[in-house]
Structure formats: C-alpha cells, structure tokens
Amino acid sequence: MSLPYELFIGLRYTRARKRLAGRNHFISFISAISMLGITLGVGALIIVLSVMNGFQQELRARILGVASHVQITGPNNYLDDWQPVADAARQNSEVVAAAPYVNAQGMLSFSGNVRGAVVRGIAPAMEEQVADLGRNMVTGSLEQLKPGAFGIVLGSEMARSLGVYPGDQVTLIAPQGLVTPAGMIPRLKQFRVVGVFAVGHYEYDSSLALVHIEDAQRLYQLGDRVSGVRLKLHDLFKSREVSRELSSTIPADVYLSDWTRQHATFFRAVEIEKRVMFIILTLIVAVAAFNIVSTLVMVVTDKQADVAILRTLGASPGGIMKIFLVQGALIGVIGTLLGVVFGVTVALNIDVIVPAIEHLLNVQFLSKEVYFISDLPSDVQLDDVLVVTGVALVLSLLAGLYPSWRASRVRPAEALRYE
User: Fold this and answer.
1) 22 to each of 13, 19, 29, 126, 415, how far by Cα in Å?
2) How do the domains of the chain map onto residue ranges?
C-alpha cells in the first residue's frame, strides 16, 4: 500500500460499498447530502456575489457616464481662468482629458408644468472626452448644442414630467433676477429641446439639463468665467490619489473632489449590502459544513470496533484523528470544488440562463417599468471566488475536528468488550 494508512482508510470510509450493511449505506448517503449542501452553498455564494458585483459595476458605469472622475471647482463656484488649471491637471500622467463646465440652478417651464433643474453648461466636443453622455442619448446629440442657438438637452424623466419632445420650446428661469424700476424680476430665456438622454439613474434623468457653455455664461452673466473643470482618468479607482496630487500642483485656489466622495453614501451602501449578503450566505455553507459533524459522529460510533483494532495494531491517537479528518476534508474539498464549478459556470452564463427561466415561467424578474437595470448583470471576480473557497474549506476542516478527537479517545478494551 503506497498511500499512508490514515489517507487510505479515510478514503475507504468515505466510499459506499454495495456489499456493506445498510447502516453504511445510510452514512454514505448523509455524506453525499453534506457534500451537496456545501456545493449549493458555495455555488449560491459565488453567484450572488457576482451578480452584486455586476450591479455595482453597472451603476458605477451609469453614474460616471454623467459625473466626472475628478472635479475641480473654483471658489464660490466661479473659476476666472480655467485654461491654466486644465493645463496643470493634464500634466498628471493619469489625466486623460479635461473639460470646463458651468453648474447652476434653474427652473424649467412648459405648458403649465414646472420642474426644478440642475443646469450644466458644457462644451460638447470636450465633454465627450470626459463623460459618456453621447452614448446615452435617446434622441438628438450633444453636437446640436450650438453657441447662441440656445438649445437644451434634457434627462428622460425631466422631459417626460414636462411633457416635452424634441423641437419644443421650454422656458428656463434663472434664480438671479434683473433689477428694474418695477423691482426685481427673474431672468427668463426660451430654449429649444434638441435632445433627450437616459443614463438609467433617476437623479440625473429627472433633474439634469445640458446647454452650451457659452449660453450658460450669457444667461447667468458669468462673462468668461466657468464653475470649474471636469477630469477623466485612465484608472477611475485612482481618483482619490490623483486629487491629492493635483491639490499640490494646481496653482489656483480651487476645491477638488472625486466621484468616490460625490457618491460616497451610495457606493458605501452597496458595499455594505454585499458584505451582509456574504455573511448571510456563508451561514448556508456553515450549516452544510456542520452536517459533516453529524456524519463523522455517526461514522465514529459505527467504526468504534475498527478504531479499537487499529489502536491494538499500534495506531496512535493522532493517526486515528487523521483518518476522520481525511474523511471530513474530502467531503468539504469535493463539495467546494463542485460548488466553485457550478457557481462560476452559472455566473458566467447568467445572461443566458435568466432569460431562459423567464421565458419558461412566463415572468420577468426585473421589469423595465419598475427597475432602471432590467438585465441581470454578473461580474465574476477571482478574489471573491478565492475567499468563498477558502471559507468553505476552513469550515469543513473545523467541522471534522470534534468527531476526529472523539475517535482518538476511543478505548480499545471498552470498544471490543462485546465484539
């Protein structure tokens, strides 16, 4: 026998033999159930974490389609000379592009409907380099925003609530008033709707209005001033580090913020939810792993005579422990590996599996009328798979400690008394 006796006997105890008694068949059946439980638990954990990663990635992409990676804002929301600031920012190797913007508040009115809006003045050609709004246009394009033409692009929810379509004229009311002999009156300007965008994020779709930066400067009497500069980076996850670097290199008195700060609460909530789901689903794996305890306890009780004989032949208590640890570890390893294969396979093909289930059951899990993300995304990350695999294996090994210790405490004389 080339294998160590602990490994050989542990493997033998794990397998079912047709010539063995019914009790051994039952123990092998319980072992198979424990293995299946670990497989399903590990698979479910990998699938859920992958789907949550997919949702997080999708939401991040939609938010960053409108928001910038890094935003440089002037004092009191005014930046007198933005070109030197943009040039200084471009000196950083991580900065891909920079674009000026004007950020202001306003009120849109059309046919008796009134909605508050965040008005953003942009230079269309430069804006395309720092955001992905052009890819999210439902009708029209950003290129239709011409200086002096007073065109406006609205979010889909904003357009729907106002009841406007491309070509309609909406009234933009600026909060800064005009002083006249009759008193202070609001500043009004007619804008023609030239496009509608939908990024799939309600905050932007329901409140953001885009105009040409020169039209915004005229309406809000800014002259050549802007609100700040928006930056796009090679690696969006380095935005906080780049912000710190730029704060020491940009000469002007400016305020820098990145997307992680602007949407910190939202992404923190998603991350907390992911951790909570990991803990909850880990309990499923733990329950399946603790089934190994009952399995090994039954095996130890059933094999007391065998253990006693091994002890009389010179097996040490440590060797007896290894026998049952091998059996428990084998159940855990096989169950974990099957669970990893099952979970990764489903997660990688979830875009095919979910529509097939929806078609079979004639249901729609994520209705387009209710959810902004109607397709179930998935992003399998190696770190998650490794963590889940490690947790499952550790729980399986821990589950085998007590039964193995109990087996090592069997006294040969007492076990063989009635044999």
Assistant:
1) 14, 9, 10, 77, 21
2) 5-61+267-415, 68-259
Q: Which residues contact 200 (CB under 8 A, 6 or more apart)?
A: 62, 136, 372, 373
The SS3 call for residue 108 is strand
Q: 113-122 and 95-110 as β-strands: parallel, antiparallel, unpaired?
A: antiparallel
Q: What is the pLDDT of residue 376?
A: 75
Those residues whose C-beta lies under 8 Å from the C-beta of residue 394, and which sit 6 or more positions away, are: none
C-alpha–C-alpha distance, residues 359 and 243, integer Å: 48
Under the banding of pLDDT at 50, 70 and 90, the label for residue 13 is low
Nearest residue to 380 via CA among 59, 96, 52: 52
User: What's the mean pLDDT in 216-241?
Assistant: 86
The DSSP output letter for 79 is: B
Tell which phi-psi region holds residue 362, choosing left (phi > 0), alpha (psi between -120 and 50) or beta: left
State how far the Cα of 101 lies from the Cα of 118, in Å rounded to an integer: 12
For position 20, what pLDDT does the model report?
43
Q: What is the pLDDT of residues 284-313, one digit of tens each?
A: 788 877 777 777 777 777 666 766 776 677
Measured between its terminal Cα atoms, the distance across the chain in Å is 28
Sequence-ordered list of residues with C-beta below 8 angstroms from that of 47, at least 6 positions apart, any chain: 343, 346, 347, 350, 378
Backbone angles phi, psi at 164, to 5 degrees: -105, 155
Q: How far is residue 110's CA from residue 160's CA, in Å, rounded to a whole number?
A: 11
Per-residue pLDDT tens over the stretch 60-112:
777 777 778 888 888 888 888 888 888 888 888 888 888 999 998 889 998 88
Give pLDDT tens digits for 28-48.
677 778 888 888 889 988 998
DSSP letter for 142, please: G
Label residue 363 by pLDDT band (50, 70, 90). confident
> For residue 355, what are its two tokens?
């529509």
Alpha helices for 211-362 (secondary structure H): 213-219, 239-249, 259-262, 264-302, 304-312, 317-348, 350-361
Tokens of 150: 């007073």
Per DSSP, 226 falls in state: B
At 382, which amino acid appears? L
CB atoms within 10 A of CB 106: 24
Q: Show the DSSP H helices in 124-263 as ranges.
A: 124-130, 156-162, 202-205, 213-219, 239-249, 259-262
Q: Collapse the DSSP code of 349 into the 3-class scheme (helix H, G, I; strand E, B; otherwise coil) and give the result.
A: coil
